[in-house]
């Protein structure tokens, strides 16, 4: 694996948490991306979701260590969500799909991926497939 991989909360959390059913497959896909020298890209909204999950499961020190680790790792790029990206995500993805389960975080992720011409995401969320992206770790 090489190139750039988008990190969604579902896949990233599965890669980190041994409690998740897809942990081994997600961890292997994440590790393969890192070991092959590929970049990992996500959005500030995904980082916020990850922070909340880690706060609940591991407490403030674990959640803060995660934030510090992402900020210090040059293989991880976090896209900040500005007004233009947010509004484009709403128009292009939320209004187009009209799926009651599609979140703003997902829509922003799709728009960020579209703008960066990314095709692959570490994700367990079926919405990525519906939006036309490839998901890892697959089944």
Rg: 14 Å
Uncertain regions spanning at least 5 consecutive residues: none
User: What is the overall silhouette?
Assistant: globular
Look at the structure and name the CATH superfamily: 5'-nuclease
Do you know the CATH topology?
Rossmann fold
Question: How many discrete structural domains?
Answer: 1
The helix-and-strand class reads: alpha/beta
What is the tally of helical segments? 7
Would you identify the CATH architecture?
3-Layer(aba) Sandwich
N-to-C span = 17 Å
Describe this structure in words.
With 139 residues, this protein is of the alpha/beta class. It has one domain (4-136): Rossmann fold (3-Layer(aba) Sandwich). Helices cover 59% and strands 14% of the residues. It has 7 helices and 5 strands. A 5-stranded parallel β-sheet has the order 3-2-1-4-5. Helix 5 (83-97) packs across helix 6. The longest helix has 15 residues, at 44-58. It is globular. It starts with a strand and ends with a strand. The mean pLDDT is 94.
Keywords:
139 residues, alpha/beta, Rossmann fold, 7 helices, globular, 59% helix, five-stranded parallel β-sheet
Write the SSE topology.
Elements: E1 4-7, H1 9-16, H2 23-35, E2 39-43, H3 44-58, H4 60-72, E3 76-79, H5 83-97, H6 104-116, E4 120-122, H7 126-130, E5 134-136
Task: Summarize, please.
With 139 residues, this protein is an alpha/beta fold. It has one domain: Rossmann fold, CATH 3.40.50.1010.
